């Protein structure tokens, strides 16, 4: 009985701490992440600039939806169809692909570390449920676009816009937003300024999709 009581207390403390943590970030900008800490420990600097979603050019969120999570408005944190498709592609071999939503990526970026195995994925799922419940879609997108890695040592769309285009994220063209979104999956290997190959092609494709996202109302949850 003593062990059961101890475990029960541990679970209660865990729930209290994590819910409070998520609750605070509902209103307060995320100050630092484990990914940023990794850059610092490896000797790289960290450049970040928080910009409220209300001030950010709406095409940035639209490009992120087009490139990372077209069902962002519809799902409750997990896109089952995308996960199933990724599993089928991975089973056929080749490059491993994920089915993570923007909500899952935000949970990982804000509260956890990169990499890891099933334990980290379980924690990611737990925090995804919490942010979907306590934050809502608009706050999830706001946090995502401010802490996602957008280049080596660069975090957030605003810092990326300044780095790549010499102006902030309040006035992005569809092409600029598309190219920043094209960097998101592999930020340490891609550059949005004067891109070549895949980044240029994918960024230009996302720029065209920005209008589709807007006209189809796929970003309606952000208003």
Task: Tell me what you see in this structure.
By secondary structure, the protein is mainly alpha-helical. It is built from ten helices and three strands, in the order H-H-E-H-H-H-H-H-E-E-H-H-H. A three-stranded mixed beta sheet has the order 1-3-2. Strand 2 (149-151) and strand 3 form a beta hairpin. Helix 1 packs across helix 6 (118-134), helix 3 (58-68) crosses helix 9 and helix 5 crosses helix 7 (137-147). The radius of gyration is 18 Å and the shape is globular. The mean pLDDT is 90.
Q: Mean pLDDT, nearest integer? A: 90
Q: Helicity level, as a percent range?
A: 55-70%
In percent terms, what proportion of residues is strand?
under 5%
Distance between the termini: 51 Å
Give the overall shape.
globular
Please give the order of strands in the largest beta sheet. 1-3-2
Low-confidence parts: none
Along the chain, the helix and strand elements come as HHEHHHHHEEHHH
Can you describe this structure in just a few lines?
The chain has 223 residues and is mainly alpha-helical. It contains 10 helices and 3 strands. Helix content is 59%, strand content 3%.
Give the SSE map.
Layout: H1 2-25, H2 34-41, E1 47-48, H3 58-68, H4 80-91, H5 102-111, H6 118-134, H7 137-147, E2 149-151, E3 154-155, H8 157-165, H9 174-183, H10 197-216
Parallel strand pairs: 1-3
Antiparallel strand pairs: 2-3
Helix pairs in contact: 1-6, 3-9, 3-10, 5-6, 5-7, 9-10
What keywords describe this structure?
single chain, three-stranded mixed β-sheet
